[in-house]
């Protein structure tokens, strides 16, 4: 409608209604493009640094959620165990309302359900492709285990292969009894003790304290976990035993997720799916980048690992896997059998 047409209207009331209609027509695109005022903020945490693969995942997820929900859902992340909540403590902290959720190392969650320890089983997967396929098969089991405890799985991050950081060169199996070693879950602790090492399962903060106090002289973790923590300051040797390719699992309290409107739930899950894909893409070159950073920092990398060392660990792994299979159930055991055939 043109201005002269408005002026020609005989009724002032009609002119006012027409002007208001024009304002709404032109304002609508502006209003629809404006960001939605934040309605929901989730506090999420990880015990790993922001530059670690776990921290990168949470950062990516937060960015994607904010973009996809147009600011309706935002995520405030805490890194490097800033909140003093370890991976194993995160489910309870989420249910108690201290956090909405977080990214937890899956091995530390195996006390909730044995299936959550699948990815840390020793020497089960030896390639990125097998690790991904195994976790695709396991994902419904992870979801079920978390849902039974009031938690909603968001995405899974596969870590680079686990190795041994130590304060000395490891030449073979005879060196294992010389290690006071931090393991990252109950299974790995059992395997390392079975092979002769003095091993214990410790959360990262407790392990770092033990390292600084010279009570520990070895860590079982990936190059990613070690590089993020600058383990080379104490442990300048890394032996690439390819023990496992474990995962961390990002989750949120189911109650917090359920309170979102259905369209927002769909966007959050879409953001989580995109994060899982980008985390897997990151894995493709992560080991190379970690090794370069480690070598630049003076780490001596033994690859391949000494044959007698790996053989001793594989022998010790047999009983740990058998015990896990009796606890985890038929569906989880079927995934192990599939992985063995690859």
For this entry, give a set of tags.
49% helix, 342 residues, alpha/beta, D-Maltodextrin-Binding Protein, domain 2, 6-stranded mixed beta sheet, 5-stranded mixed beta sheet, globular
User: Under the CATH scheme, which architecture of the largest domain would be assigned?
Assistant: 3-Layer(aba) Sandwich
CATH superfamily annotation of the largest domain: Bacterial extracellular solute-binding protein, family 7
| Number of beta-strand segments | 11
Residue runs with pLDDT of under 50 for 5 or more positions: 12-16, 18-36
- Based on secondary structure, the structural category is alpha/beta
Q: What fold name stands as the CATH topology of the largest domain?
A: D-Maltodextrin-Binding Protein, domain 2
Query: What is the radius of gyration?
Result: 25 Å
Integer count of domains: 2
Number of helices: 12
Terminal-residue CA separation: 71 Å
Class of the largest domain, according to the CATH hierarchy? Alpha Beta
**Helicity level, as a percent range?**
40-55%
Strand order of the largest sheet: 7-6-8-5-9-11
Quick gist of this model?
By secondary structure, the protein is α/β, with parallel strands linked by helices.
């Amino acid at each position: 409608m043109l201005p002269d047409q408005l002026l020609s209207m005989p009724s002032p009331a009609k002119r006012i209604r027409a002007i208001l209609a024009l304002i709404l027509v032109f304002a609508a695109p502006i209003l629809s493009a404006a960001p939605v005022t934040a309605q929901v903020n989730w506090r999420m945490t990880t015990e790993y640094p922001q530059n670690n693969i776990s921290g990168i995942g949470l950062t990516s997820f937060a960015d994607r959620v904010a973009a996809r929900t147009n600011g309706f859902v935002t995520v405030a992340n805490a890194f490097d165990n800033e909140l003093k909540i370890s991976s194993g403590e995160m489910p309870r902290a989420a249910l108690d309302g201290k956090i909405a959720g977080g990214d937890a190392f899956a091995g530390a969650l195996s006390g909730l359900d044995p299936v959550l320890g699948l990815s840390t089983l020793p020497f089960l997967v030896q390639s990125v492709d097998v690790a991904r396929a195994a976790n695709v098969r396991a994902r419904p089991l992870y979801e079920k285990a978390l849902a039974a405890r009031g938690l909603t799985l968001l995405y899974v991050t596969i870590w680079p292969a686990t190795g041994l950081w130590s304060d000395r060169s490891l030449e073979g199996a005879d060196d294992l009894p010389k290690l006071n070693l931090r393991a990252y879950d109950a299974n790995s602790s059992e395997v390392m003790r079975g092979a002769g090492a003095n091993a214990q399962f410790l959360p990262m903060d407790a392990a770092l304290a033990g390292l600084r106090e010279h009570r520990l002289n070895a860590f079982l973790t990936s190059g990613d976990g070690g590089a993020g923590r600058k383990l080379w300051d104490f442990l300048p040797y890394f032996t690439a035993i390819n023990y496992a390719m474990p995962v961390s699992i990002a989750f949120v309290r189911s109650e917090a997720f359920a309170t979102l409107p259905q369209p927002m739930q769909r966007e959050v899950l879409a953001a989580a799916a995109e994060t899982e894909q980008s985390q897997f893409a990151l894995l493709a070159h992560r080991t190379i980048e970690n090794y370069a950073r480690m070598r630049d920092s003076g780490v001596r990398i033994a690859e391949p690992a000494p044959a007698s060392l790996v053989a001793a660990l594989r022998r010790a792994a047999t009983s740990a896997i058998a015990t896990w299979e009796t606890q985890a159930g038929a569906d989880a055991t079927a995934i192990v059998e599939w992985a063995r055939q690859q």
